[in-house]
Amino acid sequence: MPPAHDPWPALTDVLNRLRRVRQLRFESRSAAGTGWDGEGRGRVAVYEPDRGVLVFEEQGHWQAAAPGREPTAFRNVFRWSAQPSGALRLEHLRRGPEQPVFLFDMAPTAEGHWREIEAHQCAADRYAATLVCEGPLLQVRWTIAGPRKREAIHYTYGP
């Protein structure tokens, strides 16, 4: 039997769940008054270019909570990949797959969640996230903190 700290069973499980994702919804809230309060919904196309590497192409619409605002289209491309250490890497592919923006590696916690090993620093802003598996759903809770940002974004990915 593998040691209790072995991340591979948890990594295999989360990759299998990521493979089944087809839709997303998210809520964004700002404690800094940046105007990022709202809700989004969309579709996710999942590709596996290599074993243990999953690309999420997300697209949909975000609706600001402020009255009178039209929905805004969004598109994101993320790459999730298994690392030899057993970590789960998350990268943003806004510059394409050859120039990924490394966000962070995640590792399982004692509670069974996944958490960034080291937060992503973008200028003065710190990005952190927790991934939780709940039945067929994946919950990803982001926090962004900086001098002008205090955002929380809660993604729900599902089949």
Notable traits:
1 helix, mainly beta, globular, ten-stranded antiparallel β-barrel, 8% helix, 57% strand, 159 residues, disordered N terminus
What does this structure look like?
Helix content is 8%, strand content 57%. The chain is mainly beta. Strands 1-2-3-4-5-6-7-9-10-11 form a ten-stranded antiparallel beta barrel. A hairpin with an 8-residue loop joins strand 5 and strand 6 (101-108). Residues 1-5 have low confidence and may be disordered.
Summarize the model shown.
The protein is mainly β and 159 residues long.
Helices and strands in order:
Elements: H1 8-19, E1 23-30, E2 38-50, E3 53-64, E4 72-82, E5 88-92, E6 101-108, E7 114-116, E8 120-122, E9 125-134, E10 137-145, E11 150-158
Antiparallel strand pairs: 1-2, 1-11, 2-3, 3-4, 4-5, 5-6, 6-7, 7-9, 8-9, 9-10, 10-11
What sort of overall outline do the alpha carbons produce when their principal axes are compared?
Answer: globular
> What kind of oligomer do you see?
single chain
Percent in strands? over 45%
- The residue ranges in which pLDDT falls below 50 over 5 or more consecutive positions are 1-5
State the end-to-end CA separation.
Answer: 31 Å
Query: What spatial order of strands do you see in the largest sheet?
Result: 1-2-3-4-5-6-7-9-10-11
Largest sheet: 10 strands, antiparallel, barrel
Mean pLDDT, to the nearest integer, reads 89
Structural class of the secondary elements? mainly beta
Q: Helix-strand pattern, N to C? A: HEEEEEEEEEEE
Give a count of the beta strands, DSSP E runs of length 2 or more. Answer: 11
| Helix amount | under 10%
Any idea what the radius of gyration is? 16 Å
Work out the helix count: 1
